[in-house]
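Usage

Read records sequentially. Each one opens with the input sequence:
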Amino acid sequence: MSNEHTVKSYEEELQFLIDSVIKMGSLTESQLIDSMDAVIKVDKDSIDKIIKSDDEINKFRSKIDTQIMTLLVKRAPMAIDLRETISSLKISQDLERIGDLAKSNAKKVKPLPLDLPEELLSNLKRLGDLVIKQLSDVLDSYVNKNFDKAKDVWEKDEKVDDLTYIAMESVIDFLSKDKKNLDFSTHLIFATKNLERAGDHITNIAESICFLIK
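and closes with the structure output:
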């Protein structure tokens, strides 16, 4: 009876860890969506809320680290359980970085003018929408342990690079029209690069899920 109780407790601890990663992923996705909205709408009022939500993501990261240490020390997981534990660690690290990049983009909104060119915003939005969809798909693949979906996200990384290039071209065009746009353009270039880097972290998550499943 005691052994059965121990096994049940171990399974519950492992499931608790997986649930924590899923909740952290959901928070990160919301933060990425909110920060993208703030950039496209130049919504300066939402900046503080986005920065605060990043604190919640960081708390989840600390909680997951503690859960992983407990599992490794107490349970010494083997095979698939060990892969699940290590993958949770790597995925939570990438989610934290995506949260940091979303927060950074929210901060870039403050100095922006309200009359940015429509084409520039449209190209930035296309990039942001793809990165958000990639994150949504990779989290879905983690929840459902769907190898094909994770692999599909992994393979779409080049599309993120292509849309980054197009968005960058729009920013450079904006700068070339008036040297007074230099400060604004610098913030927009950083925002674009942050989205590309978020895409890289999403690809890392997809790799971790593929490793976990197969």
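Summary fields computed downstream for this record:
- The CA atoms of residues 84 and 212 lie 6 Å apart.
- The radius of gyration is 20 Å.
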